[in-house]
Amino acid sequence: MEQPRKVTYDVAELDKVALAYATTVHKSQGSEYPAVVIPLATQHYPMLARNLLYTGVTRGKQLVVVIGQPKACALAVCNVRAMRRLTNLAARLRQQNASG
Question: Which of 3, 40, 47, 95 could form a disulfide with 72 if both were Cys (CB 3.0 to 4.6 A apart)?
Fold first, then answer.
């Protein structure tokens, strides 16, 4: 396995970075891609969660590149608060069991 590399661009070199097609982590669930680039910035604080970072990282088959602020990555790794889903699934299962 290759060791992670850190590449730093100066502002004057940003014209060497090309845009590409993108999808969200949510839409990528259940899919795999040859290469994945994950941008992390503290400005996107509500999206910095371990489960989302994990999903993004595990979508890449050959290459995963994380671009952004080290602080944003640390926040994502430390944020284990998963949003509680309001599906009423437990109540529906109890109701189904009671009626059947």
Answer: 40
Residue with tokens 């891609």: 33
Residue 52: burial class (beta carbons within 10 Å; 0-12, 13-18, 19+): middle
What the block records as the tokens of 100 is 């059947």
Token readout for 68 is 């952004």
Q: SS3 for 40-75, per residue?
A: ECHHHHHHCCHHHHHHHHCCEEEEEEEEECHHHHHH
The label of the residue with tokens 């060497």 reads 16
CB 69 within 8 Å of CB 41: yes
> Cβ distance 26 to 54 under 8 Å?
no
Cα(64)–Cα(59) distance, integer angstroms: 8
The answer to whether the beta carbons of residues 73 and 44 sit under 8 Å apart is no
